[in-house]
Amino acid sequence: MSLARLLRGLAALPLFSVPVLSQAQGKRPITQDTYDRWHTIGGTTVSPDGKWVAYTLSPVVGNGELVVRSTQGTAEYRVPRGYTGRAQLQPAADSAAQFTPAAPVFSGDSKFVAVLAYPDRDAMDQARRSRLRAELQPKAGLAIVGLADGKVGTVPRVKSFRLARDGGAWLAYLLEGDSVAAPAPPRRSAGADSTERRKDAGTTLVLRALATGGEERIADVIGYTIDDGEKWLAYAVSSKSGDTDGAFVRALSASAAAPAVALAAGKGNYKGLAIDRKGTQVAFVTDRDDYAARRPKYALWHASLGARPVAQAVVNAAQLPSGLVVADRGGPAFTREGTAITFGMAPPAQDSIPADSLAEKAVYDLWHWKDGKLQPQQKVELARDRNRTFTAVWQVATRTLVPLGGDSLPQVQVSADGRTALAVTAVPYEIEQMWAESDAGTDVWLLDATTGARRKVASKVPFRAQLSPGGKYVLWYDDHRWFAHDVKAARTRDLTGAIPGVRFDQETWDTPSLPNPWGSGGWSTHDARVLVYDRYDVWELDPAGVVPPRRLTDGTGRERHTILRVVRTDLDEPSLDASQPLLLSAIDDSTKHAGFWTDRIGGTAPPVPIVMSPNRWGTPLKARKAGQFVVTRQSYREFPDLYTGERLDALARISEANPQQGEYPRGDVQLVRWLSADGVPLRGLLYTPEGFDSTRTYPMLVYFYEEHSNDLFAHVTPTGRNLINPLVYNSLGYLVFMPDIHYIEGYPGPSAVKSIVPGVQSLIARGFVDPRRLGIGGQSWGGYQTAYLVTQTNMFAAAVPNATVANMTSAYGGIRWGSGLARSFQYEKSQSRIGCSIWTCRDRFIENSPLFFADRIKTPLLFMANDNDGAVPWYQGIEFFVALRRLGKEAYMVTYNGDEHNPTKRANQKDIDRKMQDFFGHHLLGQPAPGWMRKGIPMLVKGRDQVRMATDSVTP
Predict the structure, then answer these.
(1) What's the distance, CA 258 to chain centroid?
(2) What DSSP letter does each residue of 228-280 carry, written as one string?
(3) Which end of the chain has fewer CB within 10 Å, C or N?
(4) What is the spatial distance between Cα 263 and Cα 250, in angstroms, rounded to a whole number?
């Protein structure tokens, strides 16, 4: 039966309201209160011995908790508010922003776990409403859990804590300052003594013996660290008087902490304490020797740690290139092998502009055509640029300084042995990046970190180069091939160009930019081999060019249409041990089943499956000193809870984040297939309500972005904001269809039409979709495509194109205000897929713009355009709304004042969710129109009667 005939046959059928299925089936309805009950798992970590797992259980709104669970039994301990921190989903997002959540940390001997416990949510909200000063607001505390008995010790008002990676005897934590702030010092006059400067005063550092609970307090500490092996505590003191200022170390043993030894002392600032991995040397920066100056300069200090450690200044500003000083930010760091110290150089701090200096003067931005970056981007990056540093190296053995970075080479990576450095710079191509993005390329430089000698090894490379862990090679991808530059031989080798019939770039790439490579999987020990990917398999390449390339996975991936990728379970180890089995993730590209396989670097046998199942799997964590794995597993019905075991095919579940989910309706999801209007095979997801009856007809919502079929086994939790959540809308009686889109360069709008409309028609033809009750919606790129679709078809009874671009001709020259970037690249090279400039392809910009076809629209529209949107300029929404209003079309635009591309304020998230449900409910279910649709909300009543009018809603 043709679609036209089907529509004629159904035209006479009356509209009727579909009951909320959850009520009919005796389950609880999903409401906005339901969203807030759902929990997520985060911050998962496993103890070194593999016997314990710690994770955070956080609700959308409210207080979370830390859960510490045994992997060997059922023992479980909980810490209220331990490692919570989902500020973006809290009602008082601004009050939570001062906290940076720190993950729980196990002691090296697996006997304790420590975590910061954050203030009660209600207390934080009250402090915000009361506008308390920062020092008077609630502070985090420290919780210390003994794993033998589950006893929890708590310490109030703690800033931070440290546990040694391989220790277990000691815990150090830094307390907050006094809750009553000291009065601010009087403002200095111009002629005041420069030594009477204001500096941050430290607070109390506590060193706790974990076995006994005994503690020692150290006053006025501003910074501290413990080395991995728990041999040394290093700390910096900053006192109000300055009399006790200095950098100190204390030797640690299993039972005692030796008296403090001053590395350097005297009035000044001491920052950036770092100890090498072996615990044999320490570095820091201080301005002690120049503290009396108006703008004191810092120096880098170094000491060998032993019986009587004494630090010496090894680098000062006089030794650096002209115009640079030792930076006091970022801090020094030892290379992995401890042979060199990297630290930052920076221009001296500039004087601030007096508040009245620009009075009666012109204040403006000058846009210069030769500027590398536009003024808005410079503004966004201003704080970063003011605090930028350039890399320098101090060689420990030779005691020599080697400056490496600078304006032309702002980013430098130093090898583990401190002898080689890689610099990748896009500075020569900044103007071209405005329209070409990454296709503009980067130059790749190799630097000798012992002499400073440099040479360019590649130009205009579009994909980022990498330095091998041992520093022997530079690897990059360009012109469909992998290249390796031999540092010692100063020779570049093409590693893959001679392999016939294999593509290492993404043949599924569908934007006008150069196709990305499938990626690399890491290096084997001693830089002997590098692993790279094609679409399905893993390849083993010899960077020396001696051994021919070989398909490590023997073509099994391609043969079975299974995507195989390397899984790193020891992220602290930079190389893959070729003597150990190689763990691979696996995804069947046809069924979307996933799991894990195993293989060996250098092996000849094909890869062996460990487990495959109708699930999506997370990346496994593995205990450092045991074979215990912890991993998440999920499906549409199964929340991604934690599973553990020594074998990935024999796992036990150890968490239940949402036991309440069985109280609510959950339908099902199926993979559906159809052909586009051009005959291209496509896939998508169809979500059906619980109790779905294929002999009935249902209203259906279409929600999309680019591709969704890979989410077949992704779990969906009930959430409410500017999207169509299939679980929520299934419970309201809708089918939800999420189609994939096949894009044709230059025609993103028609591509969406040719992909989505046939997909909807294929479902209508199956008899359970009511063609008169179709809705469609999308956000951002999905919003644009939604707006375009309703200019080309009248099959939808309601549409929600949120954060849409309506006019590509004006958007092309616009700014992404969040980054300051011009939007040109998005059309010429990126997601908008026009593939050329507005001057060479003027017609394409017009043909793909919904604004120019708005007169054809018959579908009622609701859309969001927020005035602080950093991705899509909100004036795009204004252009669209003004056009629709001029044409007499039913349209509603919501602007959440001060909010972003995706609303971050919880009240706004819930409001747009409610409005979308109201809008679809009215047009697809025949529900009464709410007050905001009937009468609007005049500016006169904004903030007053708006509350009543906005809540005049028909949704539960």
Answers:
(1) 42
(2) TTS-EEEEEE--SSSTT-EEEEEEB-SS-BPPPEEEEESSS-EEEEEE-TTSS
(3) N
(4) 10
The alpha carbons of the chain give a radius of gyration, in whole angstroms, of 31
Pairs from 423-426 (Cβ < 8 Å, separation ≥ 24): 423/447, 423/454, 424/461, 424/464, 424/465
DSSP lists the bridge partners of residue 344 as 391
**Residues 157, 549: Cα–Cα separation, whole Å:** 58
pLDDT at 5 over 80: no
**Strand order across the beta sheet in which 861-864 lies:** 668-675, 681-688, 735-739, 698-703, 769-779, 798-802, 861-864, 891-894
Greater model confidence, 385 or 954: 385
* pLDDT at residue 356 tops 80: no
The whole-angstrom separation of Cα 870 and Cα 877 is 13
3-state secondary structure of 396: coil
Nearest in space to 200 (alpha carbons), one of 187, 182, 180: 182
Q: Quick count: other Cβ atoms within 10 Å of Cβ 526?
A: 12
Does the predicted model carry a pTM greater than 0.90?
Answer: yes
**Tokens read off for 919:** 């809008």
- Which of these, 496, 624, 489, 458, lies nearest to 51 by C-alpha position? 624
Mean pLDDT, residues 27-37 taken together: 89
Q: How confident is residue 571, by pLDDT bands cut at 50, 70 and 90?
A: confident
Alpha-carbon distance of 73 to 51, in angstroms, equals 9
**pLDDT at residue 610 tops 70:** yes
Find where tokens 């692993």 sit: 531
Contact 231, 279 (CB under 8 A): yes
Tally of CB atoms within 10 A around 806? 30
Residues 45-62 have a mean pLDDT of 93
Q: How far apart are CA 717 and CA 50, in angstroms?
A: 30
Q: How many CB atoms lie within 10 A of CB 166?
A: 16
Indicate the CATH number of 664-925 among 2.30.30.100, 3.40.50.300, 3.40.50.1820, 3.40.50.1980: 3.40.50.1820
Is the confidence at residue 127, as pLDDT, over 90? no
The pLDDT of 317-338, averaged and rounded, is 95
Kindly give, in sequence order, each residue whose CB lies less than 8 Å from that of residue 359, ignoring residues fewer than 6 positions away. none
Asked whether the beta carbons of 214 and 228 are under 8 A apart, the reply is no
Q: Whose CA is closest to 521, among 443, 414, 599?
A: 599
Q: Answer for the pair 894, 864: CB distance below 8 angstroms, yes or no.
A: yes
Could you tell me if 300 and 313 are in contact, meaning their C-beta atoms sit under 8 angstroms apart? yes
Whether 737 and 700 have beta carbons less than 8 Å apart is answered as yes
Would you say 457 and 476 are in contact if contact means Cβ atoms under 8 Å apart? no
DSSP letters, 289-329, are: GGTTSSSPPBEEEEEE-SSS---EEEE-GGGSPTT-EE-SS
pLDDT beyond 60 at 12: no
Q: Which of 740, 724, 872 is nearest to 799 (CA)?
A: 724
Q: Whole-angstrom Cα distance, residue 2 to residue 522?
A: 54
Task: Report which of 450, 467, 307 is spatially closest to residue 392, judged by C-alpha positions.
Answer: 450
d(CA 343, CA 449): 13
What pLDDT is recorded for position 351? 78
Beta strands across the sheet bearing 420-425: 412-414, 420-425, 442-448, 454-461
Q: 868-889: per-residue pLDDT in tens?
A: 999 999 999 999 999 999 999 9
At residue 828, what are phi and psi to the nearest 5 degrees? -80, -30
The helices-and-strands tally (H runs, E runs) of the chain is 19, 55
When pLDDT is averaged across residues 210-237 and rounded to a whole number, the result is: 97
Q: Which secondary structure element, helix H or strand E, spans residue 845, and what is its range? A: helix 842-847
pLDDT value of position 2:
39
